[in-house]
Write a structure and sequence with these properties.
By secondary structure, this protein is of the alpha/beta class. 16% of the residues lie in helices and 42% in strands. It is elongated, with a radius of gyration of 17 Å.
Amino acid sequence: MVKAENILAGFLGRLLDDRFFADVQITRAFPRTVKPTVLKNTVIAVGIQEIHIDDASIGGDVKTGFFSVFADIFVPFSDESATPEKFVFRICRDTADFRIVSVRVSEIKTNSTAGCYVMRAVFTFHNEIVFGGNGDE
C-alpha cells in the first residue's frame, strides 16, 4: 500500500539513499527552460506522470491502481563511464518493491547546449493507493 501524497517522496528517497547516486544531482522535475549551462555531473529530475485508480473491492474503500513516475536523465558528454541506461537499471533495482509493472525509455538524444545525453524513463507501478489520512491531514 502506498499513500498517494508520498509516491514521489518515496521514489526520490530510494534514489537519495543509494550511494551509487552520490555524485548525481537528483531533484524534482520542473518545466524545462533553456539555460546556457554545460553539465558537469549527471542530473536526474523526477516527477509524477500519471495516476490511475479503480475500486478493488465491491462496496469497499480499497483503491488499487497504477502510478507512473518519470525520470529525465541528463548525462554529460564528458562522463565517458556513464550511460543513461546504467541509471535506469539502478533505479529499477532501488524501486523494485514498489511493484514495477513496466519501464519505458525514450531514445537517447543529445543536448548540445547543455553538453549532455538525455533520456526519459517512465516507471509504472501497481499497488493499493490511499489518499489522505486521519481527517486532519
